[in-house]
Amino acid sequence: MKQEMQVDLLKTMLKMIDDGTAPDAGRMVKNPTSSYVCKDLAAREWNTFFENHPQVLGLSGDLPESGSFMTSNDLGIPILATRDKAGKFHAFVNACRHRGAPVTEDERGKKNRFACPFHAWTYASDGKLLGIREPQMFGEFDKSCHGLIELPSAEKYGLLVVHPQVDGTLDVDSLLGELAPEIESWDLGSATYLGGSSIDMGLNWKIANDTFGENYHFHTLHKSKLNNLFHGDATAYDEYGRNHRLTVASRFVDAMRERPENEWNVTDAGVVVYYLFPNTQVVLFNRVVSLFRIYPNRNEVGRSLTRIANYSAQHIGLDVPGEQAQVLDSESLYTADTSKRMEFTLETQLELARSTIEEEDYYMGEKSQQAAESGKVEHFIFGRNEPALHHFHTNYRDALGLPPLEEYRAAG
């Protein structure tokens, strides 16, 4: 992100802190709770947004070198992502061309060859069929026509993107739109994979996504954790077609007031959250990138799976001066001391994923799901200070040809 943009975002958040304001969508809207429970709608969502829409699989750091691979079963088909000997990213259907067995069941690793465990047919990391066991017994066979089935894929701006359909079209720049130059500027391709986790809980995928769209709840739900780390209401918000960006001010933002603007760094003084339509959140904070991919459960409307991956991104942002800048009390994890930053960010990301998101956000999301399923609550209300929720649901509904959200008026 350009330095002038970082300065503008930080000034916006500092002014919100000083004025006691928040982002403003200009109105309140009603979101029907049927969108979280309707089975027919869930089937349309799956077909439109997951089965027939490009998906972010990860970042370049998931495949750091030739021979690296990872697998995924979240899109209804088994996917094998590889980096071949020439360094090119591929995505294949993870199924042997003989009898359909997966050529590997490992989640990730390094292999230049994949041997099917069923009958030992062997494939290269570029998908070519290298050999079959006892060909003289199997019969006449043209190996060149029976490599792994390849899916449309692209690696750009550090994103690994795949289309789940063999005949699907994929254009990363079209997906990102006006956001593409900004994503490119972060050099996500230099981020190094640290580890990942998953959250499988009883809330619709859209309720899970809503978790990342507002900070109005920080002061209450996260009063013992995130509220000590962030100015919950001070959030700069911008839209880019179907995508958007939120920037949330941390308590360290106040230290920027005493520094020259050329030392202002938005990822040290806050969290930058990019929502990429339809189901991906890219979070940048204090030299760490976290990727959240949210998937519906095809058999249970009120359930979803969130995949979380964390990456080290030491190249992001500016160097903070080396003096101690203890922002919170001594029990807090947050310190701006560069010698402790890596320890802080790793520990914090794990803590956020485990206790904050799972045990607080998603726990409360399960309660919202239960209210929706009761049939007694007709709609949820999105406030003026929750523009990202307006944006996500407006675009989601538009993509399905649904009517826009109805404005909520205090009179009824």
Which key terms come to mind for this protein?
single chain; 412 residues; Naphthalene 1,2-dioxygenase Alpha Subunit, Chain A, domain 1; Rieske Iron-sulfur Protein; 7-stranded antiparallel beta sheet; 26% helix; globular
Describe this structure in words.
This protein has a 7-stranded antiparallel β-sheet, sandwiched between helices. It has a 4-stranded antiparallel β-sheet with strand order 5-4-3-6, with no helix packed on it. The protein has a 3-stranded antiparallel β-sheet with strand order 19-1-20. Residues 319-345 have low confidence and may be disordered. The protein is globular and about 80 Å long. β16 and β17 form a beta hairpin. The longest helix is centred in the last third of the chain and has 34 residues, at 341-374. The two termini are 43 Å apart. The protein contains 10 helices and 20 strands. The chain has 2 domains: 3-51 and 178-407, Naphthalene 1,2-dioxygenase Alpha Subunit, Chain A, domain 1 (Alpha-Beta Complex); 55-162, Rieske Iron-sulfur Protein (3-layer Sandwich), CATH 2.102.10. Helix content is 26%, strand content 28%. By secondary structure, it is an alpha+beta fold.
